[in-house]
Amino acid sequence: MKIRFIGHSGFYVELEEMNLLFDYYRGELPEIDRSKPLFVFVSHAHPDHFQRDIFSLAEKADNVVYFLSDDIRRSALPLQIQECVRLLAPETETEICRLVQDETGRELRQEVFLTVNTYRSTDEGVAFLIDCDEARIYHAGDLNDWHWEENTEAENNGNFGRRASGAGVCPTSPSCRWIPGSGRAIGAVRTPICGRSARAI
User: Fold this and answer.
1) Burial (0-12, 13-18, 19+ Cβ within 10 Å), 69
2) What whole-number distance in Å separates Cα of residue 65 and Cα of residue 190?
3) CB atoms within 10 A of CB 98
4) Cα–Cα dist 115/86, whole Å
5) How far does the chain reach from its first CA to its final CA, in angstroms?
6) What are the start-end ranges of the E strands in the chain?
7) For the whole model, what pTM was predicted?
8) For 106-146, how does the pLDDT look when each residue is reduced to its tens digit (9 = 90+)?
């Protein structure tokens, strides 16, 4: 697994059988490998996590699928890529399957290639947990224990409790539950940690 930081919450992950792009909004993208599927993830509609430029990637790669938070309006999507888009609400699971030959090479069978689970965020949109044979990756979007300077400590704690109820994972707060799963380790985690929440660590 090769992970490239693009900027802000944007990351490009190269795996043996696929590439993944998370929350791109600016910066230089690496060369797209057309021989592998490209899966593009957008955690929410804020302009520092989502730019319509990502839709031009469908011209640079042969097999692109977009996993977008459902706070992004379908009307914002170009018509030519709508069949490649999955709009996902929190607490959703979706799969990408592929056809593979059986051991004899005579018959095709369907197998799960990629599984995407979404979790509620403490801000807008969703957090993603991605499972494939090669890796398990978590991208939090804007899921965090946000502490706003203009709020009192009681307001921050109360707001977090309301926002975090049922949220996926927030490493800065013991009140969040961990992501459920098979016990398989997560190989890469991206979660926001900033000065506003540093005192909660």
Assistant:
1) buried
2) 21
3) 13
4) 13
5) 29
6) 2-7, 10-14, 19-22, 38-42, 64-69, 85-88, 93-101, 108-120, 126-131, 136-139, 188-190
7) 0.78
8) 889 899 999 999 998 777 889 899 999 998 988 888 766 65
pLDDT digits (tens, 9 = 90+) for 145-158: 656 677 777 666 65
Distances (CA, A) of 154 to 1, 10, 32, 101, 174: 42, 32, 47, 59, 17
Q: Which residue in 13, 43, 12 sits closest to 28, CA to CA?
A: 12
Whether 9 contacts 49, CB under 8 Å: yes
Residue 38 structure tokens: 């490209």
Q: Which two tokens stand for residue 47?
A: 């302009």
Tokens of 54: 């990502």
Closest CA to 138 of 123, 113, 117, 114: 117
Q: CA gyration radius for the chain?
A: 18
192 alpha carbon, distance to own chain's centre: 13
Amino acid identity for residue 157 in this structure: N
pLDDT digits (tens, 9 = 90+) for 23-62: 988 888 878 888 999 999 999 887 777 888 889 888 888 8
